[in-house]
């Protein structure tokens, strides 16, 4: 079983950038695809981006394409989400999650992910 811890959230002005990290412990992260999801107040959790086990395949939600980049460093057991050109609509709690099944491309559905972090708050002011 793997434990996930997100970090890097905070308050930023619109147009700014943040870099989130998802650090794993317990098991090597390279055995999991990893996704980022977010949840805004009063809204359902939504898919943001995902990366395959080896890092060779990624996918992103249309709303973040061209602005957010997901990457991973398996040697550091960490997955990253670089967020640029942030908008107020990007505000929410960001979660990373690990999928133990082999799926290509990585899945966008939250219920396919087995392990979740506690989340990190991202607030984008206008």
Description:
The protein is mainly beta and 126 residues long. 0% of the residues lie in helices and 48% in strands. It contains no helices and eleven strands. The protein has strands at residues 3-7, 10-13, 18-25, 33-39, 46-51, 58-60, 68-73, 78-83, 92-99, 115-116, 120-125. Strands 2, 4, 5, 6, 9, 10 and 11 form a seven-stranded mixed sheet that branches. Strands 1-3-8-7 form a four-stranded antiparallel sheet, with no helix packed on it. The protein is globular.
Short description:
The protein has no helices and 11 strands. By secondary structure, the protein is mainly beta.
Task: Give a quick set of tags describing it.
126 residues; mainly beta; 7-stranded mixed sheet; 4-stranded antiparallel sheet
Instruction: Decide which structural class fits the backbone.
Output: mainly beta
* Helical residues, percent: under 10%
Largest sheet: 7 strands, mixed
Query: Oligomeric status of the shown chains?
Result: single chain
Mean pLDDT: 97
Query: Spans of 5+ residues with little confidence (pLDDT < 50)?
Result: none
Shape: globular
Instruction: Give a count of the beta strands, DSSP E runs of length 2 or more.
Output: 11
- Contiguous helical run count: 0
What string, H for helix and E for strand, traces the elements in order? EEEEEEEEEEE
Spatial separation of the terminal alpha carbons: 40 Å
**Radius of gyration, in angstroms, nearest whole number:** 13 Å
Helices and strands, with pairings:
Blueprint: E1 3-7, E2 10-13, E3 18-25, E4 33-39, E5 46-51, E6 58-60, E7 68-73, E8 78-83, E9 92-99, E10 115-116, E11 120-125
Parallel strand pairs: 2-11
Antiparallel strand pairs: 1-3, 3-8, 4-5, 4-9, 5-6, 7-8, 9-10, 9-11
């Amino acid at each position: 079983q793997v434990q996930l811890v997100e970090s890097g959230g905070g308050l930023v002005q619109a147009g700014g950038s943040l870099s989130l990290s998802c650090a794993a412990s317990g098991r090597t992260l390279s055995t999991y695809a990893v996704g980022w999801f977010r949840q805004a107040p009063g809204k359902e959790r939504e898919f943001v981006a995902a990366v395959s086990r080896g890092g060779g395949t990624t996918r992103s939600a249309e709303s973040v394409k061209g602005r957010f980049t997901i990457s991973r460093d398996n040697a550091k057991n960490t997955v990253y989400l670089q967020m640029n050109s942030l908008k107020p609509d990007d505000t929410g709690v960001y979660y990373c999650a690990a999928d133990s099944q082999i799926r290509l491309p990585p899945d966008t559905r939250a219920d396919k992910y087995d392990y979740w972090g506690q989340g990190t708050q991202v607030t984008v002011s206008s």
